[in-house]
Predict the 3D structure of the following.
Amino acid sequence: MNEHSIPAAAAHRFIRAAFESQGFDTSTADTLAALMVEADLYGSDGHGIIRLPQYIKRIRAGGINKEPHIRVVREHVSTALVDGDNGMGHLVVSFATTLAMRKARQSGMAWVNTRMSNHAGPASLYVRRVVTEGLICLYFAVGNANHLAPWGGTELMLSTNPIAVGLPTRDEPPVILDMATAMAAYGKVKAKAKRGEMMPPGWMIDRQGQPILDPARSAEGLLLPIGGHKGYGLALVVGFLAGTLGGAAMGRQVIDFNADHTSVTNTGQTVAVIDPAAFGDAEEFRKSADTVVRDIRSSERLPGVDRIWLPGEQSFEKHARYAVAGFPLSQGLLDELNALAQEIGIAPLAELAAA
Amino acid sequence: MNEHSIPAAAAHRFIRAAFESQGFDTSTADTLAALMVEADLYGSDGHGIIRLPQYIKRIRAGGINKEPHIRVVREHVSTALVDGDNGMGHLVVSFATTLAMRKARQSGMAWVNTRMSNHAGPASLYVRRVVTEGLICLYFAVGNANHLAPWGGTELMLSTNPIAVGLPTRDEPPVILDMATAMAAYGKVKAKAKRGEMMPPGWMIDRQGQPILDPARSAEGLLLPIGGHKGYGLALVVGFLAGTLGGAAMGRQVIDFNADHTSVTNTGQTVAVIDPAAFGDAEEFRKSADTVVRDIRSSERLPGVDRIWLPGEQSFEKHARYAVAGFPLSQGLLDELNALAQEIGIAPLAELAAA
């Protein structure tokens, strides 16, 4: 299977042009392109440029507000509820993240929920931004399609509601955990499908409980939660926190944005920020974090294991490589993006990449 | 195997007498007994009366401060750091929970960490208290012995660091998730050992990666995290949040309180509380939570599944039964408790139960 290397700048121009072609102003298109490319550069290949065709389809169908009035609709000392006015999720969560950081610096910690938001790419985009400022971040979100059944059930009642946590360090790469509460995020299933690869057993079952290995059959199946009933419990409480608490969709209210491109998704996300300085010397905290990271990395390994990784470390290394050499893109996805380019009248990605 | 039913009042008197025999004042002994019995009544059989012999051993060895000065050592608008002065963890976390609730009502949400605390029983004790007040609770803790290796490792660097989340409802039982980040908490392994039962595959492996099924061999093994690298990541970030952030033990600093009864454990816990009223009408939130609970409970089931449970619902039902009929206790544990009673000069549990 052919794989291309796409330079960040080429992908950025392509994505920006795609949004501009739909009437987004240049500054907004730039913001969206920067975040989507960052996702691919850090190896979040299920949440970067791969999502562009779907975003554009929804925008063309009128399912996204191109000029949203993103605003705080309820606020307390350490909390806020942000209404995204059905704008692109990247813009809404960026707004919420900035607000949460400001409030955390003022009161020690802050918890900001969004409603009327949309798919915002990988959690790590926002968590990384917070961690870069020396703050701790927790992120929860309601996914944009239900792929999980309750434990013992067959009905798709829950999304793979992700949990992300970021911790600043001093000399080590930051610790950034970004995980779906299913064995695999649906984005990873899509990426497997795009690459023509099979899924490992344990990712999905059908409604008779039999394993599904072919990602092309994913629409028939249920994603499996991590740790059985535990992952079901995690997906559920994340849905309550990021969705129900702020009046965003959860459970049966969740729109399947793979199938429905017009209904308002009313997506909810939580960005919670903690200032380590509220608990002691922030520099000491980062040093202690470095010590834990090094202790774990240098601990004894199972036979055949070359290296113990910390959460986020592989993404960090991918970024170092991809920022220089470009990020990998399958032939299938490149073809799809260039078909989209033709449809919306922008230059293909291939040409830009070759430039 | 014989199983006894122990009335709550008998267990309460027994535990209170045990602490009083060690010089705890009656009020403190009462508080500890109430929390430990509540654990058993809700089915947390790995964290209730089963822990009494270990607690008493540590107290007799001088490893616990019987008259701690539990106090706030650092405070911001929505955060606090509580120093437990090496007191019983139940007292320290109760203090932190009260404080977090008060601060959350004042500023919308609050995040309180403990340090110099100790084992506090199941997270659900504190989460339930918060939820009863109509508030949302998140709880994280660093466990008191490392039973997990990093993913790919063999060295016990992490505990089964639990995550608990509680959500208030209106007419339904509250949603209370209380889970270890391992496939099974070590308390469950101990309970299996006490009952003379084997563990299912997937709970533990030895240092060659082979399954361990006999809980008597647990000291040789590693508990497995949920979802492989994901559970490792969760255990790690929980350790940072509940431990490192507040200057409590984490990683190599964690004392194995099963083997070492004198060293200060410097245990850390996090109690975070959110006031739903900061995000909208609190009554509406509870109604929405009820709707989600009912939708999930009534959703389609796999063949052979009688009922879909919400997190905490089985504990809720156990409590209804055990509060009336007593909670189950194995012959082995009863013998152990009565040997302890003889050792410390208090009346045996059997006699009290028969009274």
About this structure: The radius of gyration of chain A is 20 Å. Residues 115 and 268 of chain A are 5 Å apart (CA to CA). The domain at 1-60+313-355 of chain A is CATH 1.10.1530.10 (Hypothetical Oxidoreductase Yiak; Chain: A, domain 1). The mean pLDDT of chain A is 95.
